[in-house]
Amino acid sequence: MFIGTPLITEEQIQKKVKELAYKISLDYANKDLVVIGILKGSFMFFSDLIRYIQTPLKVDFIIASSYIKDKSSGEVKIYYFPKEEIQGKDILLVDDIIDTGFSLKTIREKILSMNPSSLKICVFLDKTERRIVDVPVDYIGFKIPNKFVVGYGLDYQEMFRNLPYITVFKKEIK
After folding, report:
1. What CATH code is carried by the domain that includes residue 93?
2. What distance in Å separates the CA atoms of residue 90 and residue 32, rounded to the nearest whole number?
3. Which of 4, 39, 46, 91 has a CA between 20 and 30 Å from the CA of residue 55?
4. Among 46, 53, 42, which residue's Cα sits nearest to residue 19?
5. Could you read off the pLDDT of 78-107 as tens digits, one per residue?
6. Which domain holds residue 121?
7. Most distant CA pair in the chain, distance
């Protein structure tokens, strides 16, 4: 396997995370904010983002998956759903990447059915070329080409999440 040069550097990531956190802080000033991260992929982005948000907030998580190895199965499985009260709260859903849109659409609909005061979505990466389902995204870190990427929480078979940057993943052909 081969890990290439950064598509998005560590410095670019941290600058963008601070910009997003600033916008979110302004938008959620004086609101009852609950930030929900979608695991596992969003964990690095999520932790960096909430560290820079300058408004009181609560934290919770969703564990969901639609991927088998490096392909979307088209079926979204939710393994854990927030214990935090959602009704009447301002919810910010944070994910690592949006590509087909299936996962975010499913999770968004489930949260909306619980009557939050508001629901916005923040994604670190947007792979627009792969979009099949339209999902409103309010905060976007980076738009990327239709390449399989790893690093900064994103993985290939649970590996490479610890890279501090984003790179295109390539399998070595033997």
Report:
1. 3.40.50.2020
2. 6
3. 39
4. 53
5. 888 888 789 999 999 999 999 999 999 999
6. 2-170
7. 57
